[in-house]
Structure formats: C-alpha cells, structure tokens
Amino acid sequence: MTLALSQRVVLTQDLPKEGLRAGDVGVIVEHYAARADVPEGYELEVLAANGQTVAVVSVPTSAVREATEREVLSVRDMARA
To answer: Phi and psi at residue 5, in whole multiples of 5°?
Structure first.
C-alpha cells in the first residue's frame, strides 16, 4: 500500500546518524517507486516540537508505518550523532 504525500507516519527503526528513533513521527514529502536495485521508499520531513525541521531522510517502505488515531504524540530530547 502506498502512503499519501503529507501523511504522518511513524518510524519503525532507529536512524542513529540522523538522531532519530523508532516511534518518531515524520511527514511524507515524496514517494519513490521501486527501481531495479532500489526498493520503494519515502522521503520524510521530521519536525521538532516547535515546528522546525530537524531532518529530511529517505527511507524504504519497511522503515515506516501509518500513524493511527489511537496514538498520542509526545516529546523527547533529540539524540545527537
């Protein structure tokens, strides 16, 4: 299933180089179709609590899942690489 642009998603794995953790929330800003040796994926924008962009990352579809109406957002200090 392809997720929609501007949809909120949840990371399912840590991205230590970017200081991101599984459970962090991002917004889809681009979708990439699968190609010969590159899997389908997304480009995400991850925002700080104040709305400032803290990371823009490209991830495979396996690294994200849909956010649900039963989940509540929270905050944490962002880890540094």
So the answer is: -60, 145
DSSP for the chain, please give it: -PPPTT-EEEESS-BGGGTB-TT-EEEEEEEE--BTTB--EEEEEEE-TTS-EEEEEEEEGGGEEE--TT------PPP--
Of 61, 22, 33, 29, whose CA–CA distance to 45 is shortest? 29
- Strand-pairing partners, residue 28, are 44
Q: What pTM was computed for the model?
A: 0.89
- Give tens-digit pLDDT for 36-69: 988 999 999 999 999 999 999 999 999 999 999 9
Give the span between the Cα atoms of 7 and 28, in whole angstroms: 6
Asked if 25 contacts 7 with a C-beta cutoff of 8 angstroms, the reply is: no
Rounded Cα–Cα distance for residues 81 and 18 (Å)? 7
